[in-house]
Amino acid sequence: MRRRAIMRLAALLAALCLLCGCAPADLNVPGDQTPAVQEETPHEHMVQDDVPPQEEPEIAEPETPEEPEEPSRVSFVAVGDNLIHNTIFRAAKQADGSYDFSSMYAPVQDLIEAADLAYVNQEAPLSGEEPSGYPQFNSPQDVGRDLVAAGFDIVNQANNHSMDRYAKGVLATAAFWKTVPEALMIGMYDSQEARMEPKIIEKNGIRIGIVTYTYGTNGIPLPADKPYLVPLIDREAIAQDVAALEGKCDIIMASMHWGAEYRLTPTDEQRALAQYLTSLGVKLIVGMHPHVIEPMEWIEDESGNRALCMYSLGNFISSQQKRDTMLGAMMHVTIEKAADGSVSLTDAFVTPLVTHYEKGGKNYQVIPLADYTEELAAKHAVNAYDKPVSAAYFSELAQEVFGAFLTGANHTEEGAVS
Fold first, then answer.
1. Contact by Cβ (8 Å): 209, 200
2. CA–CA dist 121, 213 (Å, integer)
3. Rounded to 5 degrees, what angle do the CA atoms 345, 349, 350 make?
4. Distance between CA 80 and CA 367 in Å, rounded?
5. Omega into 388 within 30° of 0, i.e. cis?
6. pTM surpassing 0.70?
């Protein structure tokens, strides 16, 4: 019994020792001084690089205002009748039989070339036949080439002398201008198609449509089978021609051979036609025929349409014998096209020109009035017919007719002067 009790005690001690050797190392047994493990927060083990960067608010760049688009501009000049009397072409004749008019235009060539576009009225056919003067003119073709060499871009041939060499003269003149592509010839046509084709010239991104007419052809009728040769003033035809240009150009100009000779003011008919052209949307009217200067003015119709009208530029060059016919004009205006496509006219003014020639049909020249001296005036051949010829007289006449337009101030389409 005692033996059995001792054996039981030994087995219990063995079991107790076994249990103590197998206990886990982190088991909190009585007397263990190891601190309790704290719970971790989600971010305690994240290093600095693991912290997502904070987005800085974007600072808006100040907007740079867009520079307004510069308008397109075309500077335009126009002169009147290039009326080549026989004394003028004789003075221009060279030893080889050709003709050279360049020295006659030289004093104003800088003014012509300075413009983007320049207009002149050639007051006679250029048929290539023997030249002739008054009353039935035919100018040497060399004059056409010299006009272009002087800087003219637009040459008008619709005037009262267009038919001086009849239909064949018109056809020959139209053929000649096809050999001079540097210039746009208007006013003489070799077919109905050529007559009806819109006449447009483009410069600096501005398209200028042109219509041209003459009041008549000195009693020489247009052939019944060729009414297209020279455009005559006719309101229905004008309306049709202007309508054909709409949508094809930015501005429309009308060249008008009209009025009464040697009259310094426009007739009622000129004024009525100018109003009619303005009502159709024509913005620039260039007139000639009276052989003397007439005023330039702004015109407005009842609908608010506006146009700049030069009633008469006078002569560019001639050998006439009346004192007033020696004073001509160069019209200046700037055509301006804004970014939105609207077109206006600015910088409108006039440069007076003097035709100078001396006894015996010598020394023909076109000279700016500002450069014309009393010494030259004393030599003028017209003193023999209508005197006195003087720079002072021409200055007074120019002031009387053109007034403030002589100042060269900025005459805008609104009529303001700045």
1. yes
2. 12
3. 140
4. 14
5. yes
6. yes
